[in-house]
Structure formats: C-alpha cells, structure tokens
Amino acid sequence: MNEEPNWTDVLRRREDAFRSLQVDGSMPTELIDHLLRTGNALIRAKPDVGKFDELFWYLQERLSELSELEQTAGAAVRAHGAIARSNIAAAAMEMLEILTLENQLAPPYSAFALLRSLLAIPEIDSETVRRTSAWTMALMIEVLEPGTGNNKIARQIGVNASTVSRWRRSEKYCVELEKMKSQARDPRWKVVLQKALSYMRHERKNFNK
After folding, report:
1. Torsion angle of the four alpha carbons 180, 67, 134, 171, in this order, in degrees rounded to the nearest 10
2. What are 97-102's contacts with CB under 8 Å, separation 24+?
3. Domain spans of the chain?
4. Cβ of 92: how many Cβ atoms within 10 Å?
5. Which pTM value belongs to this model?
6. 158-187 residue pLDDT tens
C-alpha cells in the first residue's frame, strides 16, 4: 500500500520548483500562482490544461535558450539569467504529477515535447524513438539502480540482453552514462530522473498491454 505523501514537504518542494522559474521575472506571476493553487492538496483547485500547456511551451523555450547559451557561454550560463536545466526538469515533473496522478488529466503534447528535449529523445520515426527511449531508460537504470545486470535491464526496456551489453561497451554510452551520473549528484536532478524513469516504465507497460 502506498503511503499518503507528506503534503507539507510536497508543497514546499513545489513552491521551490515553481519559484525557481522566475529568475528573470519573465514568467507571469498569475501562471506561477495557478501552479501553486493546483499543486496544493488542501485547496484542490482544478488545473487549467490550457495554462499548463502554455507553461510547458514556456519551459521548452527557456530550455532552447539554455542549450544555445551552453554552446556559447559555457560555464557563464547563470550570469545570463538562464533557468537551470535541473530546475526546468523539476518543475516539469511536478506539473506532470499534478495533471496525471492527482487529477487524472491527459497532459498536453507540449509536456511530451519538453520531456523529449530534457531526455534528448529525438522527434523522429517511431522505431528510432523507441530505441532511443530504451537507450535512455538503460542509462537511467544504471545511474539509479547500480549493479543491475544486462538481462534485467533488457526485460525492462524491451530489447535483447546482447543489445544492452553492446551499448555498455560503446564509448558513446559510457560518455552519456558519466554525464548522467554527474547530473544525478544534484539531488533535484536525481529526483527528476527517478520520476522520469517511473513515468517511462508506466508508459511502456501501457503500450505493451
């Protein structure tokens, strides 16, 4: 049986996540207030999916700006007032929880577009997306559940164990693994990875029904 979450901690976490989006004041205060009202279990305000859609696209734009800055400004990104990638991811996952887990609402396409961008999953043909999603899940499992063997990873992501073994020997995979491990040292990003992995597992389970 799942325990009822500590809503005081949840609300504090959500307020931190949503307030972090206002680094340069460009996000309208009423949208932040809407997030905080709908994310408050004591108020139980109904989410406006249209506003959530607007917010997801806003985060997608800020993520694109951040990616461009990372190419040009390097370590000086924060000096340009950019929202940290971990803050974008944390806010996005809280928004998904509010819509899906707490209100049983279907998230807008913008939510999936943002999630793909955060996880570097390309918007291309379905087979390539499936393989790239499996690759990303394998990395997440290694980071979050160290010591998991090829067979167990393969069963969870829907590929052959030999494929997982080949990936783990490749230079590209090792580079991506170290990058994700480095990100996971940030507790906020680790929570995002955990939620994203749980979400992807849920989606794969539904897809295979």
Report:
1. -60
2. 97/195, 98/35, 98/38, 98/39, 98/47, 98/52, 99/47, 99/49, 99/52, 102/41
3. 7-118, 126-207
4. 26
5. 0.59
6. 888 898 999 999 998 899 899 889 888 888
